Amino acid sequence: MSEHLALLATHLEAGKVRCELCAHRCVIRPGQKGLCRVRENQAGELYSLNFGRLIASHVDPIEKKPLYHFLPGSLSYSIASPGCNFRCQWCQNADISQISPGNEPGHLRFTPPEHVVAAAVDSGCESISFTYTEPSLSLEYNLEVSRLAQEAGLRSVYVTNGYMTAEMLKLTAPTLAAANVDIKAFDEAVHRRYTGARLQPVLETCAALKQAGVWLEVTTLLVPGVNDDERQVRGLAEFVASKLGTDVPWHISRYFPQPQFREIAATPPETIFRAIKIGREVGLKYVYGGNLRASVDTDCPSCGERVIRRLGYGEAGVDLKDGVCPKCGFPIKGVWK
Ligand code: SF4
Questions:
Q1: Could you tell me the pTM of the whole model?
Q2: Is 326 a domain residue?
Q3: How many beta carbons lie within 10 A of that of residue 101, not counting itself?
Q4: 313 pLDDT exceeds 70?
């Protein structure tokens, strides 16, 4: 019945186990699962139920993560195992992230880590992205894939909600070349109400990733009436600028109604343009629109020269010489080929 023994478990009295992977720190009784439903206490031991149980694998342009300052124009082998520790009502991947009778990990075929890396190499990818669902919940599998990927010359990427503990980050950060953290709201009460999780650990993860030298980009999906007010948008922009750095790219995306959440209409483009303006006002050098056909190129913050043109996913015209603007020599931060 067991799957893969989980890391980051603290054994408590009466066979209970506390999972220390994410900031929920679930205390789990024997026979029960944690809030994410992919970690289970089996007779006093914590097991990962989604180890190698992939529910999605695709070859994606790295821009789709989104990562705009990390190997632009390259492909990333993108995989996901089921499971999430958030409950965002508007999740566009709810069918694979939230566990339901149709997508329990045990129903999925096991994919050995070496198969993932071989597929990535065969498809010409330069990185492996752990994405679509919440990747941190597949810690044990991801560590094995990342180790093999590194041996094959590939880099590893997380696209995450950032709800990790310091212990989790200590294991994971050294294996990552880049991460995109989705900060879903900039108000504790709003964040809790719509995700079921606290905001503060997410902010701490962003700072820790930056500190660890992982290339970091931040995404925010602006949902009308939820997180698009001036206070939250400006507060988030100021957090990125002051705590993470003005070189950290910020992606501000339009929300579109999902089948399970149609109460709110799509984000007007003007809302995104207003947020981009706020980001620039607080000093962020790279602010991008997501799910928009505008504001996707990279301009030199010093002289305005267009240094990266993005024509569509996977088509990036890069005009950088050793990471500097070819016109004025200003350093454009990122991970370039
Ligand atoms: S990963 Fe988070 S939600 Fe899942 S069992 Fe561990 S602490 Fe709970």
A1: 0.96
A2: no
A3: 6
A4: no
**Span 44-57, pLDDT tens digits:** 999 999 999 999 99
The domain in which residue 41 lies consists of 4-48
* Ligand 1 lined by 138 (C-beta under 6 Å): no
**Do 303 and 221 fall within a single domain?**
yes
> Is the same domain home to 104 and 140?
yes
CA nearest 278: which of 254, 252, 307?
252
Residue nearest to atom 2 of ligand 1 (CA): 22
Region 296-301: mean pLDDT is 94
Minimum-distance ligand 1 atom for the alpha carbon of 83: 4
Residue type, 10: T
Which of 7, 21, 81 has most ligand 1 atoms within 8 Å of its beta carbon, as the pocket-test mutant? 21
Candidate from 22, 38, 140, 160 with most ligand 1 atoms within 8 A of CB, to mutate: 22
Q: Considering its fold, how many domains does the chain have in total?
A: 2
Residues 44 and 68 reside in one and the same domain: no
pLDDT tens readout for residues 243-268: 999 999 999 999 999 888 888 999 99
Residue of 300, 302, 330, 337 whose CA lies nearest to 316: 337
Residue at 72 is within a domain: yes
Answer whether residue 337 is part of any domain. Answer: no
Q: Indicate the helix (H) or strand (E) that contains 203.
A: helix 200-211
Tokens of 251: 């992606």
Ligand 1 within 6 A of CB of 308: no
Whether residue 166 contacts residue 208, with contact meaning beta carbons closer than 8 Å, is answered with yes
With contact defined as beta carbons under 8 Å apart, do 218 and 180 qualify?
yes
229 three-state secondary structure: coil
Residue at 325 is within a domain: no
Q: Is 50 in the pocket of ligand 1 (CB under 6 A)?
A: no
